Amino acid sequence: MPYKWPSDTDFALRELDFLDRACPACGRMMHICDHRYRRIHTLEGPVQLVCKLNHCPDPDCPGHAQTKSPEQEAMIAPPNWAIGWDVFCWIGHRRCSRHMSIPLIQSELLDDYAIKLSDDAIAKYIRRYQVMLAARQQDPQALRRQYESVDEIVLSIDGLQPEKGHETLYVVRELTQKRVWFAKPLISATADEVQRLIAQAKEWATSLNKTVSLWISDKQDAFVTGIAAEFPGVPHRYCDNHFLRDLAKPVLEADSHAKVQMRRKVRGLRKIEQAVLKRQNAEALTSLAQDDPTATVTVIVAPANAPAPEPDSAGTVVLDYCAAVRGILNNDQGGPLQPPGLLMAAALNEVRESIQRNLDAKKGGSQKSNSAVLPTASTGDWSMSKPSKRQSESTSRTSTRWPRPWNLEGRVASSGRRSSRS
Ligand SMILES: [Zn+2]
């Protein structure tokens, strides 16, 4: 369907002359016999081409009946296209390099260049771009140029299914130049079919006159037999990605099991928190009662987790430890190379060491203080005790070397200073 231009389109005029005006049949100088007008989109705006048509003036010459178009026209846009090469390349690049969807290409063309194309027109240009790209990729001369400086090549083969249930696309790639050589969709992918692909790769390598030093794949049976048949003696190895992926599955399973175990062991946070909050509320109540007996009512109706006006600082540190541990237990970040369970274990260990440093500092400090031990969590060796206000001053010495977001030892130190002033 011809492209419909809005009536108010402002076209830039461009006249195209014939460069070589000799008649290809008899050599006489050709005459302009007609003009052809053509409108196209370019990235610089709409253009109207005025193509001067030529023919041989000699009525007896075969060049008389055939008109010739200016050579330059095909350099600007292929015949019958509504867009120039520049727009065509822009679309193809957005699609193939940036994987943009057709609606996105469509809207960007309209927003950035005021070029209005239908989605099926864009789809059609993309198909043509892919055909040209494939032809270019497989151009033997270009290939030879690229492989001039390469001594040995490394080939890989893999099948990928663009969507479930679709035929599998088998891709042969050359890894030293990171280049897709060719791809073929195979429905059944029998050993014979796969071997034909490998044989084709052999033809390419032979035509380039290069030695294949290595094959890499996921070692499916068809690849193993096919490569052994076509490339006897050439090593065939697992690809890193497949190897890691196969390894990752049992690792992640074991890791997730370890996570469950740790969560089962580290429990009782809520009990500790409730005990601290209860005591903080009671303390607040007492201090308020001393200041202003009428204010007690407000404290009683306040929710349990509301910040007490003057909380006991050690209790706050315990609550912060609980929040840190809860954060650690709920964190699921990570992957096969950084298993979340290992991260969890490392973080829990850091918390344990931090608590231990506080406890050690307490033992080294004043023994006269009345340290109130909070209810022990049901964690075996995971007990938390409350650093008291006076001892926390001595913990400040250990606080500087703990670069964690929940730098609780620092908090112990600062709260200690605060409370010692009061
Ligand atoms: Zn002629």
List the keywords:
48% helix, 5-stranded mixed beta sheet, 8 strands, binds zinc ion, alpha/beta, disordered C terminus, 3-stranded mixed beta sheet, 15% strand, 422 residues
In short:
The chain is α/β, with parallel strands linked by helices.
Describe this structure as you would to a colleague.
Helix content is 48%, strand content 15%. The protein has 422 residues and is α/β, with parallel strands linked by helices. The protein has a five-stranded mixed β-sheet. Residues 295-304, 367-406 and 410-422 have low confidence and may be disordered. Zinc ion binds at residues 23, 25-26, 28, 56, 58, 61, 63.
Beta-strand content bin: 5-15%
Order of helices and strands: EEEHHHHHHEEEHEHEHHHHHHH
Mean pLDDT: 81
* Secondary structure category: alpha/beta
- What form results from the Cα inertia axes? elongated
Q: Ligands bound here?
A: zinc ion
Give the end-to-end Cα distance, rounded to a whole number of Å: 87 Å
Helix proportion range: 40-55%
